[in-house]
Write a structure and sequence with these properties.
By secondary structure, the chain is an alpha/beta fold. It has 14 helices and 13 strands.
Length: 374
């Protein structure tokens, strides 16, 4: 049995899939090969391999045509995932299965990759509609953390009975094994707030809230602030701009425009209060229920919109002038949201006991063996 793990997008997605690859590689008669698009991927795979204690897995850079390479060098244009997949379609078609943590890999079918079974495990279990797009139906097996996502995908016809499995969150399990012992650079232990802004221009709170937020924490040094926006917000920007944001750090503010700690849940583990807009990372934070504050920078009518179900798990702030008051009140108001947080986190994350990656690998092997015997 030959299985390709296809990391077609940014390296942060390794934390959702690499542990499954290693658990599959432990099975007799299974060969796993990692393929990557983002040059940063081997570094993160090495971190996860070390945390997992192996086994070592062959890792290959995806081939890229001269045109694909030229376009990727223009950093702000993106990963050109379809072009990269087309460049590698013939080789990938030789596998028995292709495992992906990005649903754009469904494009392989129209690119002529017809032999392998396609297996998908989403890199996050949030509420936004973009997590429930029609192309998910192209996958033969979908691995999901909890029943919330499964119910919504079943209702939309994106998965079918026998074509999905509930495993729990592999990223949570991976994060628990990563060495996160490095201390945060704050000069005093204070209550710590994590601000996790999304990258989507029409949804992000960054432009409207970041400056008032920094000013608020400069004036009130009774709390620490970690500013760790979505890793893709600064990934394609030059190092000079990232340095400018790092330089905004102070003795009670850490601004991180992209580091290992931005993707391995170090900050979620260290924080007492979560502040964000639309990221699915809120459910990872709420594996341990804690206060949340959500920022409605675009005055969205969100109350009955399922894409914003997580905004019912904390106070929602529309006006930056009200932000610091909401942060100061968050701990006292947490009792209003704790039970709902616990219920929604459990529905999103599913089984949080150890063994999520092993459960995922067993589900993959069971599915593939049943199909090969049919």
């Amino acid at each position: 049995m030959r299985i390709a793990f296809l990391y077609i997008a940014e390296a942060y997605q390794c934390y959702h899939g690499a542990a499954i690859a290693m658990e599959l590689a432990r099975h007799s008669g299974v060969t796993v090969v990692n393929y990557y698009n983002d040059p940063a991927t081997p570094h993160h795979l090495s971190r996860i391999t070390a945390a997992w204690g192996g086994p070592a897995i062959e890792t290959r850079a995806l081939r890229k045509s001269p045109l694909t390479r030229a376009l990727q060098r223009m950093q702000r244009l993106g990963m050109f995932k379809d072009m990269v997949m087309r460049d590698n379609a013939a080789e990938l078609n030789g596998y028995d299965a292709i495992f992906a943590v990005e649903n754009t890999v469904a494009s392989l079918r129209r690119l002529g990759v017809t032999h392998p079974r396609l297996i998908y495990s989403p890199h996050g279990f949030g509420d936004r509609a973009r997590g429930f797009v029609p192309r998910i139906a192209a996958f033969d097996l979908v691995l999901l953390a909890g029943p919330k996502t499964a119910a919504r995908m079943l209702e939309a016809g994106l998965v079918r009975e026998g074509g999905y499995a509930l495993t729990g969150s592999v990223k949570l399990e991976t994060a628990d094994r990563i060495d996160r012992t490095s201390t945060l650079p704050f000069n005093a232990p204070r209550r710590t707030v994590l601000y996790n802004a999304h990258k989507e221009p029409k949804l992000t709170s960054w432009q409207r809230f970041i400056e008032p937020m920094l000013a608020g924490f400069a004036a009130d040094r009774s709390m620490n602030l970690i500013v760790a926006p979505h890793i893709k917000m600064f990934r394609r920007r030059d190092e000079g701009l990232r340095d400018q944001w790092r330089d905004r750090s102070t003795d009670n503010v850490l601004v991180d425009p992209g580091s290992d700690r931005s993707v391995d849940m170090s900050y979620a583990a260290a924080a007492d209060i979560y502040v964000g807009d639309v990221s699915s990372q809120v459910y990872e934070f709420l594996a341990t229920p804690r206060p949340c504050v959500f920022l409605n920078a675009h005055r969205i009518d969100w109350q009955d919109d399922p894409s914003f179900a997580h905004w019912h798990l904390g106070d929602v702030v529309d006006d930056p002038a009200e932000f610091m008051a909401a942060i100061r009140a968050a701990s006292a108001r947490h009792t209003l949201y704790r039970d709902r947080q616990q219920a929604m986190a459990q529905a999103s994350l599913g089984d949080t006991s150890p063994g999520a990656a092993a459960r995922a690998a067993d589900a993959v092997m069971s599915f593939l063996r049943s199909r090969s015997a049919a």
